[in-house]
Amino acid sequence: MHNQKDISLIQLDALKEIGTIGIGRAATALSELLNCKVEITLPETKLIPLEVLSNILGEADEVFFVLDISTEGDINGRIFFLLTPEEARILGGALLGKSPQDIDAEDLLFQSSLKELVNILVGAYMNALSDMTGLTIMYNVPNLAVDMVTALLDFFFIHIAQHSDDAIFVKTQLKVKDIAFNKGFFLFFPDLESLRRLFSALGIEGN
Predict the structure, then answer these.
(1) Phi, psi (5° rounding) for residue 84?
(2) Which of 47, 49, 78, 165 has its CA 20 to 30 A from that of 5?
(3) 40 lies in some domain
(4) What is the rounded distance in angstroms from the CA atom of residue 18 to the CA atom of residue 198?
């Protein structure tokens, strides 16, 4: 199993570079779609073991909008994009032309808009990853759920731990119409073989 201290600085730099390129593309795509200013800061990128996720996700009863995306091809895994309810309403409302307080979380149009926007964000990251490695990566349309941190952790340890010991954690500062998103991030769980394949394609062998 990898952990943070086992990952070399070169490997971390490679993950950060992928994140930086993907985030830049995502900012451009979102700005064009929303027809407004979108700023995304350079991401914080780490490879973290599953057992420390509870420290990152926050309080057990905190609620997140969770968009779950599976990847296939040369890189097999799962991506989870997490947004607080407030952030989800801001993001979805920006596409629908509504203020966050006018957004009904049960509205199918809102949910569809949220999926579309997250699909762009994740697609930018995956395309950057594919371009840098030459690997074929396919991903599906996001599934949307609303869960508490406790339920998320249970899911990760029951289902994800069977295939992956670590997550690529990407935390970035997203700002839409000068409104900052402080808690949104995504977790990418490639399976162990895919993680080895990823570093090998980057010319970086694991320890």
Answers:
(1) -70, 160
(2) 78
(3) yes
(4) 11
* Domains held by the chain: number: 1
Q: Which two tokens stand for residue 170?
A: 């990407």
Long-range Cβ pairs for the range 13-18 (8 Å, 24+): 14/132, 14/199, 14/202, 14/204, 15/45, 15/47, 15/168, 16/42, 16/43, 16/45, 17/132, 18/45, 18/125, 18/128, 18/129, 18/132
The verdict on residue 161 lying in a domain is yes
User: Which ranges of the chain have pLDDT less than 50?
Assistant: 1-5, 207
Residues whose CB falls within 8 Å of the CB of residue 105, separated by 6 or more in sequence, listed in order: 85, 88, 89, 111, 146
45-85 tens-digit pLDDT: 888 888 888 888 888 899 999 999 999 999 999 999 898 89
Give the pair of three-digit tokens for residue 156: 């990760």
Indicate which CATH number applies to the domain containing 122: 3.40.1550.10
11, part of any domain: yes
**Quick check: is 206 in a domain?**
no
Q: Please tell me the pTM assigned to this model.
A: 0.84
Q: Which domain holds residue 64?
A: 4-201
CA neighbours closer than 13 Å in the CB half-sphere of residue 91: 30
C-beta neighbour count of 26 within 10 angstroms = 23
